[in-house]
Write a structure and sequence with these properties.
Helix content: 40-55%
Shape: elongated
Distance between the termini: 74 Å
Radius of gyration: 33 Å
Oligomer: single chain
Structural class: alpha/beta
Order of helices and strands: HHHHHHHHHHHEEEHEHHHHHE
Strand content: 5-15%
Largest sheet: 5 strands, mixed
Number of helices: 17
Strand order of the largest sheet: 4-2-3-1-5
Number of strands: 5
Length: 381
């Protein structure tokens, strides 16, 4: 007998069909298998599930594959479950929140007031507060939530969490009204600081004096953020850095890059998020947007003027001695690490002069608005 016709939707229906084909009653099957007739009645009524052992017994006497009984049982169970299932709208929200955001790291960093990621109500309360919304389903990373940060690119949930932390800290800072003229003076003052790593401790004060909120937030795992530029309003620019690369050349390049965004008025309509600002992305190639080309060019010339860098390379290429490199830095009154960084970028030889790429993070964060590396910036409730 055909055991796979479409009319058999349950194992009970298949048993009934096989019995009818043989002219057997349910009592006959019960006697053959050595079970109660009531048991057979439950099988045919699909009130008792057919397990592997029962399926093998039925295979022995009804000449039908055990797999077919089990397949029908599985499909029947799933159909019943689907009928009884009631969608939980909160489950998909939790999928995006807990699957996308670095919840454990946010708890560890003190951004969320919860003891453990498994305390879902506490985490959701913490996230609601962190993102500044009335309820969890309004959090920005959810597909149906209205966008609030207006980021120019499409940030990942992890990047978005970092951005919100920068924005929250910046919103609590008190600085004078922004002045473009003061920024031009500040850039000249910052240039003087490039001779020594320890001078970077003055950066935060200089930027505050010209009306720029300067915030440093340690990067989150996999975020790959270097910096961000945005405006709280038309007179309140914000620069956020992650300092994920603790090198003097990288710090000054990224800072000057973000300062040029402010200087040009970039980031007023949409946050300018800079990620992996190195290699080709730090250049001026055709693949780079106009805003980024302008910022990269300003940053590169700030570290080492392009004309002087070109002349140095033309004179010394292809052999660059450490003595010549240090002498060139002294002539320009900059730290050798800035020359080393430019040479690495221009020659693609990142193994050269690495010992001159001095760490700078401890100096930069001195006196700045900092969150990370064991420090939690005090945010008002």
């Amino acid at each position: 007998m055909e055991t796979n016709p479409p009319e058999y939707k349950t194992p009970g229906q298949l048993i009934e069909g096989l019995l009818a084909a043989r002219g057997w009653t349910k009592r006959t099957l019960a006697v053959v298998l050595g079970v109660d007739e009531s048991t057979v009645n439950r099988w045919t009524a699909d009130k008792q599930a057919i397990n592997a052992s029962i399926a093998l017994s039925l295979e022995d006497v009804l000449d039908a594959p055990a797999e077919r009984f089990l397949e029908l049982q599985r499909e029947f169970d799933l159909a019943k479950a689907r009928f009884a299932h009631r969608p939980d709208p909160g489950r998909k929200n939790r999928l995006h929140l807990f699957g996308g955001l670095p919840i454990s790291e946010m708890i560890k960093r003190g951004w969320i007031a919860a003891e453990d990621i498994r305390d879902v109500p506490a985490v959701e309360r913490g996230l609601t507060k962190f993102f500044g919304v009335a309820k969890p389903d309004e959090i920005e990373i959810l597909p149906h939530a209205a966008k609030k940060t207006m980021v120019a690119s499409e940030p990942t949930p992890t990047q978005l969490a970092w951005l919100y932390r920068v924005k929250t800290i910046a919103s609590e800072m008190l600085v004078p009204k922004y002045s473009p003229e003061a920024l031009d003076r500040a850039i000249k003052a910052l240039k003087v600081l490039t001779e020594a790593p320890e001078e970077a401790r003055k950066v935060s004060r200089i930027l505050a004096d010209c009306g720029i909120r300067f915030v440093i937030v340690e990067s989150l795992p996999s975020a790959k953020i270097d910096g961000v530029c945005f405006w709280l309003d038309d007179n309140s620019p914000v620069i956020g850095l992650s300092l994920r690369h603790d090198r003097i050349d990288n710090f000054w390049f990224v800072l000057r890059h973000e300062l040029e965004h402010v200087r040009q008025g970039h980031g007023k309509s949409a946050m300018i998020l800079d990620t992996e600002l190195e290699g080709a992305r730090a250049g001026t190639g055709e693949a780079i947007s106009e805003e980024e080309r302008v910022a990269n060019d300003a940053a590169s010339n700030f570290c080492i003027p392009a004309a002087q860098m070109d002349a140095f390379i033309a004179r010394k290429s292809p052999f660059f001695s450490e003595r010549d490199m240090i002498g060139f830095a002294r002539t320009l009154k900059v730290h050798p690490g800035l020359v080393a960084g430019q040479l690495q970028h221009r020659t693609q030889r990142y193994d050269r002069f690495r010992q001159h790429l001095a760490p700078i993070r401890t100096h930069v964060i001195s006196g700045a608005a900092v969150d990370g590396w064991g420090n939690i910036y005090p945010v008002d409730d």
